[in-house]
Design brief:
The protein is of the alpha/beta class. Helices cover 48% and strands 16% of the residues. The structure holds (3S,4R)-3-hydroxy-2-oxopiperidin-4-yl beta-D-xylopyranoside.
Length: 357
């Protein structure tokens, strides 16, 4: 045997291992790339919504944005606006006091700029997803007030001219009525809401300012408190829009939702549906997906029936990237497209409700 041949025989296993590893890496990379975009029927939901005077948006998942071309394609063709799902929250931008991390938020805003998508900034003052140093810092009122207004100013100034609407305060009402307890209310008292809005107006006078709420979609004590707070903010010229999250399930849209939203519209503020999804108990049956489609259609009809309902955002557009399975174990299938980006009955119902005269 020649020396050369022997060398090759000895090297063969090494070459095999190297090639196999490269193959595995490539396969893994492909799996991370996510499914290809499927052809979706029609012009795109965003265009249909725009024809009705509604800005259609979706929550934006930063991982999918970075790694999944199919996801980016659907985003760019079906929607006209994004809300970064987590990237602008306080724990994301300032995990350690004074150490600012803008990578993910910048990615979202840059992508939006390149694709002419509007951005909803989410969210500046919230009781949840706070960094530990802040939540457990034991700050007294003056220091906490300064931290709050500095945070609002820094984040809003960074994205001045690039974020159309900010959720300045999120989920500030208690379920049974009154304000929700938490760091802000407990330390600063009820005036923290107006203080946050005043700081936001100052930071970017051209941005639209919103108060965003969960579980106040239908009328009830929570919506009543919200109405009082909004009326006062409006009187002071501090608010432009109220967001209703619309996290629903197969129980459907609250029957009083349109009527409730009209009360806000009548105050002269815009109304937006900001985080719509419709969760289904696993595994979703075809019958359940039909009911879900009805709920999505109803939601569009509600927005269309309220004079100042001018924006509708879904909290993710594919079941592949939805917060439901982790936040409500045993539930899922909450969005318009399945894991493979294929349209579900909800997609057609949503489209039909936008098309209907
Ligand atoms: C959720 C995100 O979707 C999850 O990824 C995260 O783990 C928790 O927060 N109300 C809001 C949103 O205003 O910010 C929340 O988003 C869902 C409820």
């Amino acid at each position: 045997m020649s020396r050369r041949l022997r060398r090759w025989i000895l090297l063969a296993p090494v070459v095999f291992v190297v090639l196999a590893t490269l193959g595995a890496i490539a396969a893994h990379h492909d799996a991370q790339k996510g499914p290809d975009a499927q052809p979706l029927p029609g012009l795109g939901l965003g265009r249909l919504a725009a024809a009705r005077g509604i800005l259609l948006g979706t929550a934006l998942d930063d991982g999918a944005l970075q790694h999944e071309p199919g996801y980016r394609h659907v985003l760019g063709t079906e929607f006209d606006a994004i809300t970064p799902e987590n990237a602008m929250k306080w724990d994301a931008v300032e995990p350690k006091q004074g150490e600012l991390h803008w990578d993910a938020a910048d990615r979202a805003v840059d992508f939006a700029g390149r694709h002419r998508l509007k951005v909803r900034g989410h969210t500046l003052v919230w009781y949840s997803q706070l960094p530990g140093w802040l939540a457990d810092g034991g700050f007294k009122a003056p220091a906490l007030r300064r931290l709050m207004t500095d945070h609002i100013t820094t984040e809003m100034r960074r994205y001045r001219g690039r974020v159309r609407t900010w959720d300045v305060v999120n989920e500030a009402m208690a379920d049974g009525g009154g304000l929700r307890p938490g760091l802000w209310l407990d330390t600063l008292g009820p005036s923290y809401i107006a203080e946050a809005f005043a700081a936001a107006r100052k930071a970017d006078p051209d941005a639209r300012l919103a108060l965003n709420e969960i579980g106040a979609d239908g009328s009830g004590p929570k919506a009543d408190t919200l109405l009082k707070v909004v009326r006062e903010l409006k009187r002071r010229g501090l608010i432009d829009e109220v967001g209703f999250q619309a996290h629903f399930n197969l129980n459907g849209v609250p029957p009083s939702m349109a009527q409730n939203l009209r009360r806000f519209s009548d105050l002269g503020v815009d109304v937006a549906i900001t985080e719509a999804d419709v969760s289904v108990k696993d595994p979703g049956t075809p019958e359940q997906l039909k009911v879900q489609a009805e709920v999505y259609g109803d939601l569009v009809r509600v927005c269309r029936s309220v004079p100042r309902c001018r924006a509708l955002t879904v909290w993710g557009f594919t079941d592949r990237h939805s917060w439901i399975p982790s936040s409500s174990p045993g539930y899922g299938s909450a969005t318009l497209l399945d894991d493979e980006l294929k349209p579900k009955p909800a997609y057609a119902a949503f489209q039909a409700a936008l098309r209907a005269p």
